[in-house]
Amino acid sequence: MFVLTACSPSGQVEQQSKTAASATQTASLVLESWIAGEAPSRYTSRTLQSVGKALADAGAQIQSAKSPEPSGQAGLTMAVGRLSAAAMRAATAVQNGNRSEVEHAQQDLRAAAADLSTSHAKYFAPKS
What we know:
Elements: H1 2-7, H2 9-35, H3 41-64, H4 70-96, H5 99-123
């Protein structure tokens, strides 16, 4: 039964949503460390670039799923796209040493993470 669920469109969306949430946590932690002066810029920028790419891949996987809930799927795709864009902007800002832009990207990351959580809850809410 688990294998069938994992291969279903909802299973694919669920897995990629979890991947996006995990990647977002990584981005948040590394940004907090960099802002506190505890992580080197090169490491932080490369980590954020990798996270941004992982989020873009997760978004593409969510978008390509043959979901029975296209509006919910669109909300998830949009939130993950925003997460990816924020991570990539943060990576560039860290690389350039632009603390103000890093903090702005961090705020965008938090807002998009909240949207992901809301979209996930709506997508997987019991249907009546």
